[in-house]
Amino acid sequence: MTRYGEWVEVRFGAAGGAGGEGGPHVAELVLDRPQAMNAISTEMARCLGEACADLAENRAVRAVVVSSTSDRAFCVGADLKERNSFTDDELASQRPYTRAAYAGVLELPVPTIAAVHGYALGGGFEIALSCDLIVADPTAVVGLPEVSVGVIPGGGGTQLLPRRVGTARAAELIFTARRVDGPVAHSLGLIDQLASIGQDRAEALALAARIAAHSPVGLRAAKRALRAGWGVELRAGLEVEDQAWHEVAFSGDRAEGVAAFNEKREPQWPGE
């Protein structure tokens, strides 16, 4: 376990997943400011960015779950109480920290899963959208309400939401500032897996454990190919995929995977 400032924590092999464990290759990135429902202050954003930078360099990590210690929220977005006292210069000086926080989650090189319950609004929902997969329970309330307070989604929401649900649906949700509960969010494709009440974290860790059982080289390359293929035409996307294939085809993981398959045993991934 590693603490980053007062409100962000990283845990390894966290309890709660399949068999009670996320596993040795699963990291849990914990938002731990429950008294403010994980509202993102300047300091919290700085610590989140720092934690993500360290996770990105950790080659033992194969999957990351982003979770919350608050009973009421995943994250309610920007700390508007802090911002209420900001001058324009102070708001501008905060921006690099918030951008680094969202980018840190988005650019993690391994599969990422958000475990969502309660409110996930504004920047909080953008943290979830920055993950590859979102597991939420029925108490979840998600949305990008920024236009209702005179701004726009600034943590990637205008770009990530259309990629998830299409341009028209994203426009409707952003322009109306509509909040959507867990079951409706699932039906709209805003979340990927609807957990039982109170089980979002456990189910996210179980999913992460299943992912982390596979080749670390393959997982990183597959994520890189998926992300690099966003927004490009098919021919260019296939070139991205081919480059990623060449990176893994001659790796130790590929050799071990084929050998394990033929010998009918579990692979012992060298990760290289």
UniProtKB/TrEMBL annotation:
<dbReference type="InterPro" id="IPR001753">
    <property type="entry name" value="Enoyl-CoA_hydra/iso"/>
</dbReference>
<keyword id="KW-0443">Lipid metabolism</keyword>
<protein>
    <submittedName>
        <fullName>Enoyl-CoA hydratase/isomerase family protein</fullName>
    </submittedName>
</protein>
<dbReference type="InterPro" id="IPR029045">
    <property type="entry name" value="ClpP/crotonase-like_dom_sf"/>
</dbReference>
<comment type="similarity">
    <text>Belongs to the enoyl-CoA hydratase/isomerase family.</text>
</comment>
<dbReference type="InterPro" id="IPR014748">
    <property type="entry name" value="Enoyl-CoA_hydra_C"/>
</dbReference>
<dbReference type="InterPro" id="IPR018376">
    <property type="entry name" value="Enoyl-CoA_hyd/isom_CS"/>
</dbReference>
<dbReference type="Pfam" id="PF00378">
    <property type="entry name" value="ECH_1"/>
</dbReference>
<keyword id="KW-0456">Lyase</keyword>
